[in-house]
Amino acid sequence: MARADDPINPARLAFLNELLPSVITTKAAQELVSRMLSHPSATVRQSALSILAAQTTGTSNDAWLPTLDKLLAEAPSPLVLDAIKKLKSAHFDTALQAVAADPNPALSIRLKALDATKSVKLAGDTFTLVKGVLTDPASSAAAKIQAAGMLASATLQKPQVLEIAPLFATLGPIELKTLLPIVRKNKDPETGRAIAAEIAKNPVIASAQESHYRTAFADQPPEIFESILHPAYTKAIEATEAKKRQLGSLAERAAASGNASRGQSHFAAGKGTCMACHKIGDIGRPIGPDLSHIGAIRTERDILESILFPSNTLARDYEAHLIETSDGQQTMAVIKSHTAEGLLVIDIAGQEKNIPHPTITADTTLPTSLMPMGLDQTMSETELLDLVAWLRSLK
Length: 395
Ligand code: HEC
What we know:
The protein is an alpha+beta fold. It is built from 19 helices and five strands. The protein has four domains: about 1-120; about 135-245; about 245-315 and about 370-395, Cytochrome Bc1 Complex, Chain D, domain 2 (Orthogonal Bundle), CATH 1.10.760.10; about 320-365, SH3 type barrels (Roll), CATH 2.30.30. The longest helix is centred in the middle third of the chain and has 24 residues, at about 220-245.
């Protein structure tokens, strides 16, 4: 039984959950978390993990390690892995690699384990695992974005780049944008040519701007861009222009024949990856605006325009920033708040990150939305109209 004077009294859990992540750098908070991790109540132990998963400072404490080691060995749940990922400690790397290499846990768990390691090594089985996430139609939108990010930040060998080149024909807009820097990292013309040929086949080629491609292919022989990518890109842009002219009639059809309840299922099933960035009720992530009442302020036409041409009408407070840090990393993100220590951002994979002010070398506001063009190409026209009808019905 919890004693009334026990500060970890379960009645105070909500308060502790709220408070501790932001003060986790203090000794008192760390001691409380230690006690919570070994508390007799399972609810309290879970709370301790949630607190560790919610912290953004990378704080670690040796007293926590044995409990986390044990949980990782016995039951590597998503919460345990989220908690471990937030600790700035390479202590778990070997055990995490072992979870990733074990074929038994769910794929999402193995991927999460790999993502939580401090130095991601993509070789052999782990490379196959990450690549598999991008080719498996059953992978969730978040898993795909995560896998693309891991491939983009890893140092890949030429045969590995050639092995993933065919993926570029079918990647969704976010993964395409995330993986594109691979071209720049591997200056070999053979890999550049292979990737360009695949991007040219991708129906969402127009989702990235021409300048993105020019930058990615800047170190490649110019004819790769000029004769392979540019023609395909121009054709896709022309198709987009034609679609712009159809906006009015598409909106009318969404109003007349879109099926809202089918639209709801499409959203929940991850169609168009909308829920990777938008919350509706309890589903989805808060990168873009909450769409729970979007129908009260937007017409079918507005909604369609937001989906087909996201950068035309930028919702305020959701501008995309490209933040560069002194370690050479670039993060595309929406800024949630400015704290005393730095910027609290939510990146394109939905991860909250605290970027300390002194490490920021550049912060550029992008003229384009974080919401990519071409999402409509990932579903049929009927599905698109159903989705619009559902969003319009949310008042
Ligand atoms: C990568 C993240 C991302 C994805 C995926 C995404 N959106 Fe967005 N969306 C945003 C952001 C950021 C904004 C705000 C900036 C802007 O207006 O473009 C936005 C804006 C919107 C708006 C306008 C909201 C308003 O208040 O006017 C609508 C409607 C919308 N999105 C619908 C969708 C639908 C439907 C999908 C799926 C087909 C989708 N979004 C997928 C990030 C995303």
